[in-house]
Design goal:
Family (chain C): Belongs to the ABC transporter superfamily.
Pfam families (chain C): ABC_tran
Number of domains of chain C: 2
Strand order of the largest sheet of chain C: 6-7-8-3-9-10
Structural class of chain A: mainly alpha
Largest interface: A-B, 66 and 65 residues
Largest sheet of chain C: 6 strands, mixed
Radius of gyration of chain A: 22 Å
CATH class of the largest domain in chain C: Alpha Beta
Chains: A mainly alpha, B mainly alpha, C alpha/beta
Domain ABC transporter (chain C): 25-257
Protein name (chain C): Nitrate ABC transporter ATP-binding protein
Number of domains of chain A: 1
CATH architecture of chain A: Orthogonal Bundle
Strand content of chain A: under 5%
Oligomer: heterotrimer
Function (chain C): Involved in beta-(1-->2)glucan export. Transmembrane domains (TMD) form a pore in the inner membrane and the ATP-binding domain (NBD) is responsible for energy generation.
Distance between the termini of chain C: 45 Å
CATH superfamily of the largest domain in chain C: P-loop containing nucleotide triphosphate hydrolases
Number of helices of chain C: 9
CATH architecture of the largest domain in chain C: 3-Layer(aba) Sandwich
CATH class of chain A: Mainly Alpha
Low-confidence stretches of chain C: 1-9
Shape of chain C: globular
Number of strands of chain A: 0
CATH superfamily of chain A: MetI-like
Number of strands of chain C: 10
Chain lengths: 261, 255, 281
């Protein structure tokens, strides 16, 4: 049996969604602007987009690139971050470089990479890879740095080699923090994907958005916003489920995802 | 001992940056990459210095900085006040929590077309986008910091005769300051990134626009210049915030 | 550490001794229930009644989890009892107030304020003008032996020094009752002894009412006029023991005093017996 308070807690995000849509509906009715359709009009346009074969292929292609870019980024960044967290020298080597790269908008590299590699999948995947890497490196680094020294001593006393210690002690101990980084990275992957498509204007979800904007199909613009927003919220919710399962043993995590472009 | 240790660290840290530049130069010098696509570093940095002196480029920087600061400042004010309110009042908490849960993972840049339609192509839409993106990390850290304030600090202040409403400003806000500033640091970098992207997607001025203009005419050198400028801008602002941080948190351990 | 007696009277309102043994705090049938999980309640305090006389040094002694700190928080007005009431000078306690000054085990100093800033906080909050508050606070800091540390931040001080600042910060707003929540619990043995001596020195000059929570039998006997022994689950008063030892107490004399030793041994035996006879939980 679920108590009424937990019910209310579970329903709260859904209620918030409905509330936000209601605010939108009222605002658009009040403003009565051509460029601001009502929420209902926008929702009605969603089946048209998802029913259109070409748009659907476009969106699915975007998602595939995102998945590939995200996976490669995690596979490369996580070991690097862990090594940085356990070795002062490695950290001192990479930290300043990462600090310089940090404020560079990764999606802004799109035009330059396009210049080199063309507008194909490689370019777009590479940009997503770059966007995801930094938070994953950063969180793995912080997680590995915080691993208790005495735990490693115990491991060394049991005869574990440095590599074994990294895989069997540092990795699981830093896992909650790493997964926080992955969660940020996942939302970032989506954002980088959309942004780079908006900038390159070749194909994908971001392109559909701006094409509709250029052609004055405002319903489609807002419908796409809802689709992209829903993708973000769903990806985050699914990942949060996975994360909670993987690190059941750790303290309940407080933070909500920190997403940014 | 300490200084030697530090200088080794600095050497180690400078090494990869030097390596990247050397590799970059090498690629050009050995003809692996044609100079049209990858201009040599000397040319890019020369161009940067030259550009920084011109009035038009300064105008671009100014436009970007104005949007960045305006968006960031609004995000700080909103984020800190909503975060504290959510931590202090159960009613606010019940209202804010689900909304934040929905809006935080939403890719804000997807809202940009709507902002363009509603607020036009000028400063308004870009500042709003910067605020929307920088708001959540600041709000969440503030909320976290404010809701984990040591209970006994509050009790000590109340016993000394502080009225409840003053506790918020005299205890909760200063005690949450480390968390707030961590949020601001993330928010600032996000602001840098977002303002640049917004200008790239559609704008008539600003650093992002400078990059797009250069890309349209395949001026590789001019594409690098705004990128390096925004990176430098980010580093300078980060250092400034670091200075503010170490001043404000001078009493806190591990600051 | 030297304490300046002439200075002390300025900080501490002299206690009127016309009516000896006049109750200042009355705890009447207080119970406290905490909800530990969805359907489980934990009875932290069960039907506690206790009267504390003005100017008395009373220790509440008991094992961890017996609710002794909760009882102190109820007197402080930080926690509302589930039933019953606590009164200060006949008035029901409804919230914290400057008449009851807490000193916590965790020090709870404001990390963003200097030593001087921390001590000045109370007087400033009471509306004392800045110059005056500063002069008073500087003298108090000197009294607790921290002259020269006025502009240090708490993070730069040792645990013992932090607790001295916390005591000065509380004394600065002239509370009538000091509520001390295991104040020396986080300190090493040596610092602890020194602070106990200093606290006694300060107290024996002005006889402010002190409610002192501790789990150390020696500490309770050494400092108090009265020891309230509590047992746990549920938290109850087991026994109240008057400590009839001469004052001023000097540690080196007292430790050799058979009466002191007997109090300590008797109290420890009573706790041991209750452990053996206690419920299996």
């Amino acid at each position: 049996m679920i108590s009424s308070t937990t019910m209310a807690k579970r329903a709260a995000p859904a209620l918030a969604c409905i509330g936000l849509l209601a605010v939108w509906q009222v605002a658009s009715l009040v403003l009565k602007s051509d460029s601001f359709p009502t929420a209902i009009e926008a929702i009605r346009a969603i089946p048209d987009i998802l029913g259109d074969r070409e748009s659907l292929i476009n969106i699915l292609a975007s998602l595939r690139r995102m998945a590939i870019g995200f996976s490669i980024a995690v596979l490369v960044s996580m070991p690097l971050g862990l090594l940085m967290g356990r070795s002062r020298a490695v950290a001192a080597f990479f930290n300043p470089l990462l600090m310089v790269i940090y404020p560079v908008p990764k999606a802004a590299l799109m035009p330059i990479i396009m210049l080199w590699l063309g507008v194909g999948d490689i370019t777009k995947t590479l940009v997503i890879f770059l966007g995801v890497s930094l938070p994953v490196i950063y969180h793995s680094f912080e997680g590995a740095k915080a691993v208790e020294e005495k735990m490693l001593w115990s491991g060394a006393a049991m005869g574990l080699s440095p590599l074994q210690r990294l895989v069997r002690i540092v990795l699981p101990a830093a896992l909650p923090e790493i997964l926080t980084g992955c969660r940020t990275g996942l939302v970032l992957a989506l954002i980088t994907m959309i942004t780079s498509e908006m900038i390159a204007r070749q194909s994908g979800a971001g392109n559909i958005l701006f094409n509709a904007l250029d052609m004055g199909q405002y319903d489609t613009v807002y419908a796409m916003i809802i689709i992209v927003g829903a993708m973000g919220i769903c990806l985050d919710a699914v990942f949060e489920r996975v994360r909670a399962r993987l690190v059941r043993w750790s303290e309940p995590q407080f933070d909500l995802p920190l997403s940014f472009s | 001992m300490m200084s030697r240790f530090l200088s080794t660290n600095i050497l180690l840290g400078v090494a990869p940056i030097v390596l990247v530049i050397a590799l970059w130069q090498g690629l050009v010098s050995f003809g692996v990459a044609p100079a049209v696509l990858l201009p040599p570093p000397g040319l890019v940095f020369g161009r940067l210095v030259q550009q920084l002196e011109t009035w038009t480029f300064q105008q671009e920087i100014a436009a970007t900085v104005v949007r960045l600061f305006a968006g960031f400042a609004i995000a700080v004010v909103l984020g800190v006040s909503i975060g504290i309110a959510a931590a202090a009042s159960p009613a606010m908490n019940a209202l804010v929590r689900p909304i934040v849960r929905v809006l935080a993972p939403l890719p804000k840049v997807a809202l940009y077309p709507a902002l363009l339609l509603l607020l036009g192509f000028g400063h308004g839409s870009k500042i709003t986008l910067v605020t929307a993106d920088a708001l959540f990390p600041i709000l969440l850290s503030t909320y976290y910091g404010a809701s984990t304030v040591e209970q006994k600090l509050i009790w000590s202040a109340m016993a000394a005769g502080t009225p409840r409403y003053e506790i918020l400003f005299k205890v909760v806000l200063p005690a949450a300051m480390p968390a707030i500033l961590t949020g601001c640091r993330i928010g600032l970098v996000i602001s840098c990134i977002v303002v640049f992207l917004a200008e790239m997607i559609t704008s008539t001025d600003g650093l992002g626009h400078a990059l797009v203009t250069a890309a349209r005419t395949f001026q590789a050198v001019d594409m690098f210049v705004p990128l390096i400028t925004i990176s430098l801008l980010g580093l300078i602002l980060n250092a400034l915030l670091g200075a503010v941080r170490s001043y404000l948190l001078r009493g806190f351990p591990e600051a | 550490m030297k304490v300046v007696p002439s200075r002390l009277s300025e900080w501490v309102r002299p206690v009127t001794l016309q009516q000896p043994a006049c109750a200042i705090i009355e705890i009447e049938r207080v119970s406290q229930v905490f909800q530990t999980s969805a359907r489980k309640d934990h009875l932290a305090l069960s039907d506690i009644s206790l009267t504390i006389d003005e100017g008395a040094f009373v220790s509440i002694l008991g094992p961890s989890g017996c609710g002794k700190s909760t009882l102190l928080y109820i007197v402080g007005g930080f926690v509302n009892p589930s039933s019953g009431a606590a009164k200060m000078k006949g008035q029901a306690i409804t919230g914290p107030g400057p008449d009851r000054g807490p000193v916590f085990q965790e020090f709870a100093l404001f990390p963003w304020k200097t030593v001087l800033g921390n001590v000045m906080y109370g007087p400033r909050q009471q509306g004392v003008r800045t110059n005056e508050a500063e002069a008073q606070s500087r003298a108090l800091i000197e009294m607790v032996g921290l002259k020269g540390y006025e502009n240090f931040y708490p993070k730069e001080l040792s645990g013992g020094m932090k607790q001295r600042v916390a005591l000065a910060r509380t004394l600065a707003y002239h509370p009538e009752v000091l509520l001390m929540d295991e104040p020396f619990g986080a300190l090493d043995a040596h610092t602890r002894t020194r602070l106990q001596n200093d606290l006694l020195n300060i107290w024996e000059r002005d006889r402010k009412t002190v409610l002192f929570v501790t789990h150390s039998v020696d500490e309770a006997v050494f400092l108090s006029d009265k020891v309230v022994m509590m047992s746990k689950s549920p938290g109850r008063i087991r026994q109240v023991i008057d400590i009839d030892l001469p004052r001023p107490r000097r540690r080196n004399e007292l430790l050799l005093d058979p009466r002191y030793q007997k109090y300590v041994v008797d109290i420890e035996r009573m706790f041991d017996e209750s452990d053996e006879a206690g419920s299996p939980s």
